[in-house]
Amino acid sequence: MKYVVALLMLAGTSAFAHHGWSEYDSSNTLRLTGKIEESGYSHPHGFVRLKTPEKSWLVVLAPPTRMENRGLSQDMIKPGNSVTVVGYPNRGKPEEMRAERIIVGDKTTELR
Q1: What residue range is the signal peptide (predicted)?
Q2: Any domain includes 76
């Protein structure tokens, strides 16, 4: 029983630390369009490296299970594809944003 309680406490701490989105400025919405240079359909969050005319961005996406459940397949975010992402910039990392939605072709996927 002692181990179960310790594991639950550890899991709760990890989940709390993981879901701290305060590092992103939700008062400043960005809309970026570009070509995917790199992508990951990985845990805890997927990502794309998006090349826009201005610079290259690291875009943090949703967990793979959520993306899959909402119809955003791994193939849709493969390198070379053009996408638009809408989300919030990281306060301390000027090349990073957290995406709220991604638009691939004519399909919009809400990520939160």
Answers
A1: 1-17
A2: yes
